Amino acid sequence: EARRLYDPRGRRGGSLSTFHRHELGRDPLISPGEVDLTAHVNFTALEDHARKCALEVQGSTTQDRFLVSNGVLEEFEQPDLEAARDPRRVKRRLQAMQLIHPEGMGRTFRVLMLSKGCEGLDGLSGLTDPFSRDQSS
């Protein structure tokens, strides 16, 4: 949201960050091509522009909630011990864990859902809170 993005107490280093070997950095010119770049996005501006383009804002949520609501944890369910030890499956589980870990990408990255001309989108699975004690919503 704009109020958080532009809050003077936050983002003192700007909205552009780098990641190299899972470590946060700020200088995008160090090791070009070897670091991942990420930028904080003004979701308020995106939502405003979406509405001007006749899109409906369905909502936003954190990456972990979105992925868990859409079944990423099924990757952790194994039919048998032999399948659980398959190196490809182990690698996929570790990758999924990185995406949903609350101290990493899971809570840092957000998902914005927009629609146009769609009916009956109440309760989109990606927008329900899978961690809520009240599972009726």
Structure description:
The protein has 137 residues and is α+β, with helices and mostly antiparallel strands. 31% of the residues lie in helices and 18% in strands. The protein has helices spanning 2-5, 43-52, 63-69, 81-84, 87-100, 105-108; strands spanning 16-20, 23-25, 36-39, 56-62, 110-115. The strands form two sheets. Strands 2-1-3 form a three-stranded antiparallel beta sheet, with no helix packed on it. Strands 4-5 form a two-stranded antiparallel sheet. It starts with a helix and ends in a 22-residue tail after the last strand.
Write the layout of secondary structure elements.
Elements: H1 2-5, E1 16-20, E2 23-25, E3 36-39, H2 43-52, E4 56-62, H3 63-69, H4 81-84, H5 87-100, H6 105-108, E5 110-115
Antiparallel strand pairs: 1-2, 1-3, 4-5
User: What value does the average pLDDT take?
Assistant: 81
* Most strands sheet: 3 strands, antiparallel
Total helical elements: 6
In the sheet with the most strands, the strands line up as 2-1-3
* Radius of gyration, taken over Cα atoms and rounded to an integer in Å: 18 Å
Provide the structure class. alpha+beta
* SSE sequence, one letter per element: HEEEHEHHHHE
Stretches where pLDDT is under 50 for at least 5 consecutive residues are none
Task: Briefly summarize what is shown.
With 137 residues, this protein is of the alpha+beta class.
Question: Keywords, please?
Answer:
two-stranded antiparallel sheet; 137 residues; alpha+beta; 3-stranded antiparallel sheet; flat
